[in-house]
Specification:
Layout: H1 3-11, H2 15-27, H3 35-62, H4 83-89, H5 93-96, E1 100-104, H6 111-124, E2 129-133, H7 134-147, H8 150-158, E3 162-168, H9 175-188, E4 193-198, H10 205-209, H11 212-223, E5 226-230, H12 236-244
Parallel strand pairs: 1-4, 1-5, 2-3, 3-4
C-alpha cells in the first residue's frame, strides 16, 4: 500500500484502519496474515475505533456529575444491594422495556454513584443518556418558561433513552416544578426510562410533589414497572474520610 493510500485513509478519517495498518507495517507482521485476514483485521480495527468514539461521545453528552461504573460498586451485605438485580439492570433490558429505577437511601450511601454507574453502562450499550441534578433541572426549566425555550428543553429531554434525576425531593415542588415533572414523566411514559435517586422513601414522594391529583398521575407512571433499590449502611463519604485519616 503506497503513501497516497495511507494519506487517503487519514483524510477519510479511517483512523482505526490507519493505525492498525501502520502498526502491522512497523511490527513487520503483515506476512502473518492472508489477504482476507489482513482486510478483516483493519476493518475490525476501524469498527472498534468508531464504536469506542461513540461511547466516549455518549458519556460526554450525558454530563455525569460523578465517575462510576458497575465494576466499582461495593456489594457489601450491609448496603442491601442485590448483586443479581444490579447485574441484570446493567444488561440494560430495562431501557428496552421503558422501565424505571428508583434508588433511595440516606445521604452518602451511594445512591448517585449507583444511578450514574447504570447510566454509564447504558451509554456503553449505545443508549442516549442525560444526567440532571433535580433542583438545577427544575430551575433551568423555570427560566426556560420565562424566555420561551421551555418546549425546546422538554424536547431535548424527551429524545434521551435514559434520564437520571439525581437528589430528587430535597425540597417540595412548587406549581411550576410540579407541572414540569408531570410533563417529563408523561413524555417518557412507555417511551423512555428514568433513574431517580432520593433521600426520601418512595412513599414520601406524594408530600414532596404536592397536589394529590398531579402526584397520583406522576407516581402512577413513575412507579409502574419500576425497579426499586433501597440502600442501607453508613455514609460512604464518611468511611472514605475515616480511611484517609
Amino acid at each position: 500500500m503506497n503513501e497516497s493510500t495511507v494519506m487517503k485513509m487519514k483524510q477519510m478519517k479511517l483512523h482505526g484502519m490507519h493505525n492498525a495498518f501502520m502498526t502491522a507495517i512497523e511490527s513487520g507482521k503483515t506476512d502473518h496474515y492472508t489477504l482476507d485476514q489482513f482486510i478483516s483485521m483493519i476493518i475490525d480495527a476501524e469498527w472498534d475505533e468508531r464504536h469506542n468514539r461513540r461511547i466516549e461521545r455518549s458519556i460526554a453528552n450525558a454530563r455525569f456529575h460523578y465517575k462510576s461504573n458497575i465494576e466499582s460498586i461495593n456489594f457489601d451485605q450491609s448496603r442491601n444491594i442485590d448483586r443479581n438485580l444490579i447485574l441484570r439492570l446493567a444488561e440494560c433490558s430495562f431501557v428496552e422495556k421503558n422501565e424505571n429505577i428508583l434508588i433511595t437511601g440516606s445521604t452518602g450511601v451511594g445512591k448517585s454513584f449507583l444511578g450514574t454507574a447504570l447510566g454509564y453502562q447504558a451509554c456503553i450499550e449505545g443508549y442516549k443518556v442525560s444526567y440532571f441534578n433535580s433542583a438545577k433541572l427544575f430551575a433551568k426549566l423555570k427560566m426556560a418558561k420565562a424566555d420561551g425555550t421551555y418546549l425546546r428543553e422538554l424536547m431535548k429531554i424527551q429524545r434521551q433513552d435514559v434520564i437520571i434525576l439525581d437528589d430528587f425531593g430535597l425540597q417540595s415542588l412548587d406549581s411550576h416544578n410540579r407541572i414540569a415533572l408531570l410533563e417529563i414523566i408523561e413524555d417518557r411514559h412507555n417511551s423512555g426510562s428514568i433513574i431517580v435517586t432520593s433521600q426520601i422513601p418512595v412513599q414520601g414522594w406524594y408530600d414532596i410533589i404536592g397536589e394529590k391529583t398531579i402526584a397520583d398521575a406522576i407516581l402512577d407512571r413513575l412507579i409502574h414497572q419500576s425497579h426499586r433499590v433501597e440502600l442501607h449502611g453508613e455514609s460512604m463519604r464518611k468511611k472514605k474520610s475515616i480511611n484517609k485519616g
